[in-house]
């Protein structure tokens, strides 16, 4: 039985791997996918967590480098954010910093930053973490699957930790 349902919004510059991360994470058996012409794809995934079964409604919001009014509409009533950048393109982290400033309730809501495409860099992760200065930060690869499940589970834990 599903105890709680959370709307999670994925944001990040074009091409960082948002859609690929969802494909990697979401088991099709539990997913409900549809596309609209206005640039959002919604997938769902049911997860067993320490505090019961939860359902994540994952909004893959296609966007530009700055939040548009349309995107802001999609973000309404979301419970948490998944911010995605591409570790091989550092400017994609600057895009996220811009989003964070534009999201009024950002600091109050559970969130996580995925430094995706970690398969493309050999650099030491500790050094990269110092350079990025965003948290909580997880190095992921939608290609190899590294940390994808773990990252989503961390966000799920932050979501369930909040009072109903
Ligand atoms: P989106 O625009 O953020 O939804 O990005 P996509 O999921 O469409 O991915 C953009 C491109 O990056 C595609 O060619 C993907 O195959 C590639 N890509 C996504 N994630 C990874 C990753 O973790 N590693 C590598 N090497 N390529 C990736
Ligand atoms: Mg996409």
What does this structure look like?
It is a single chain. Mean pLDDT is 89; it is low at 28-37. The protein has a seven-stranded mixed beta sheet, with helices on both faces. By secondary structure, it is an alpha/beta fold. Helix content is 29%, strand content 29%. A hairpin with a 4-residue loop joins β2 and β3 (40-49). The chain is built from five helices and seven strands; from the N terminus they run βαβββαβαβαβα. The structure holds guanosine-5'-diphosphate (GDP) and magnesium ion.
Number of helices: 5
Shape: globular
Q: Structural class, from helix and strand content?
A: alpha/beta
Span between termini: 16 Å
Amount of helix: 25-40%
Can you count the beta strands?
7
| SSE string, helices as H and strands as E | EHEEEHEHEHEH
Unreliable stretches: 28-37
> Beta fraction of the residues?
25-35%
What's the rounded overall pLDDT mean?
89
Strand order of the largest sheet: 2-3-4-1-5-6-7
Question: Largest beta sheet, briefly?
Answer: 7 strands, mixed
Ligands and ions found:
guanosine-5'-diphosphate, magnesium ion
Evaluate the radius of gyration. Answer: 15 Å
Q: How is this structure best summarized?
A:
Helices cover 29% and strands 29% of the residues. It is an alpha/beta fold. Guanosine-5'-diphosphate (GDP) is lined by residues 12, 14-20, 116-117, 119-120, 141-143.
Write the layout of secondary structure elements.
Elements: E1 2-11, H1 18-25, E2 34-35, E3 40-49, E4 52-61, H2 69-74, E5 80-86, H3 91-102, E6 111-116, H4 125-132, E7 137-139, H5 148-160
Parallel strand pairs: 1-4, 1-5, 5-6, 6-7
Antiparallel strand pairs: 2-3, 3-4
The structure holds guanosine-5'-diphosphate and magnesium ion.
